[in-house]
Amino acid sequence: MKILFGVKQKADFFSPLGLMQLSALAKKRGDETYLEVLSQDGVLNKIRKINPDVIAYTCLTGEDDFYAKVNKRIKKEFPSIFTLMGGPHPTFFPKVLDKAELDAICIGEGDYSFVELLDKLEKKEDVSKLRNIVVKGGKLNNLRPLVQDLDSLPFPDRELFYEKNTEVFIMNFMTGRGCPFKCTYCFNHALRKKYPNQRYLRRHSVDYVMKELSNAKENFGLKFVKFVDDVFAFKEDDWFKEFCERYPKEIRLPFYVHSRFDLMTPGIAKSLRQAGCKAVEMAIESSNQDIREKILQRKISDEQIINSSRYCSENGLSVVTCIMTGLPGSTLKDDIAGVDLCIKAGIPVPEFFVYQPYPGTELGEICVNEGFFDGDLSTMQGYAFSNPSVLNCFTPKEKNAQINISLLGPLAVRHPFLRNLIMNKLIHKLTNELFKKIYTSEKMWVYPSKVYKRKYSLRERRDIIKKAIKLEKTKRK
């Protein structure tokens, strides 16, 4: 069979690991797989040329309108092609099945449910009884258990997204699945409820990870590794020690990880540095400790933020942090305090994003129940975290200032002498193209020098700049 995976846009910094995993499973079955950017002109001609049996999408809330419009066009032109959507949005909002005129949606982890679906479609058998799969006019027939042995899965099919024998500057990897924390703005706690009495936090063996990395390095000229696990290092356990011992011997590439301020220790920071780590992303989310602990369920103190930043700095690790502006219950004063906290902690790479109340998350539901958000999903923007807040508890001026903090806050943190000018005056100006250009130009300098640290040729820098500009356009619509 021929399976076409459709994506909204193609950005190397956000390679679709989920689709690549499904593609690997399909190829293991003997299928042909393709990737197409659905926002490009001529996509219908490409579909006509490929003549796929199945078209599959993965969708975030905020992207559903785009995929709905595209799928309706495709089904009108090619009614016999089976179209399927998976990802966070259909998992929590199965009504997208009818809205987008899909043939089916996949709820939850869909690795082997996807394989079963392909088996049934190939044999022209009924697919309405498959677990995780909901067909038009059907219902959910329970969920398959979570994949506990992640090593049983094939390596993600990176050929779907990258060309072999080329140089790839940055590539995403995951060493495991799941997160044990209960942050109220995240979907993990809601997804975990769908799998009661199952081990939600799972991890590949270090051996599997090393082989996957070696494969990518050999076939794609990989230069920098980005681990996108929710949390890479929980503690200095046997897995972590083995990874830090083997990685510099077997892979020898700079890398980047995600962690938390309340988990970072001097020992973990030192081990990461010795293994070749260059940067650690740890989210603050709110400068207001009451909001952080009581509303976001992130029990992390200012002291932990400052100390963990110091541990990383002492080991040459750049800290990337995220703070959300426009949180329910917060004020503009809190948003400005986020900038000051980053200055105090010496954060080299801060990011400020306008909060989006994703329905299905605990905090998103609170916003709806409290009347801060009407629940209209069409106002959500996927990855575009720097559009105006959709909450009605802020004035237009406050929403404008929140966006300006997201654009100019990083500049104020890196150059504290500009703090008063930016926070007292500039954030109250109308958002404009100059502010956006300042943000983008700063980011294009900071990320290669502070985060993805390695030697770059002029050609590499030029390519990274082009990709960064393209990515920022998708995030700041």
Protein topology:
Layout: E1 2-7, H1 17-29, E2 32-37, H2 43-50, E3 54-58, H3 64-77, E4 82-86, H4 88-92, H5 96-99, E5 104-106, H6 111-122, E6 133-135, E7 170-173, E8 176-177, H7 188-193, E9 202-203, H8 206-220, E10 224-227, H9 238-250, E11 255-259, H10 266-275, E12 277-282, H11 289-295, H12 302-314, E13 318-325, H13 332-345, E14 349-354, H14 362-369, H15 396-414, H16 419-424, H17 433-451, H18 458-475
Parallel strand pairs: 1-2, 1-3, 3-4, 4-5, 7-10, 10-11, 11-12, 12-13, 13-14
Antiparallel strand pairs: 5-6, 8-9
Helix pairs in contact: 1-6, 9-10, 13-15, 15-17, 17-18
Can you describe this structure?
The strands form three sheets. Strands 2-1-3-4-5-6 form a six-stranded mixed β-sheet, with helices on both faces. Strands 7-10-11-12-13-14 form a six-stranded parallel β-sheet, sandwiched between helices. A two-stranded antiparallel ribbon has the order 8-9. The protein is built from 18 helices and 14 strands. The two termini are 37 Å apart. The mean pLDDT is 92. With 477 residues, the chain is an alpha/beta fold.
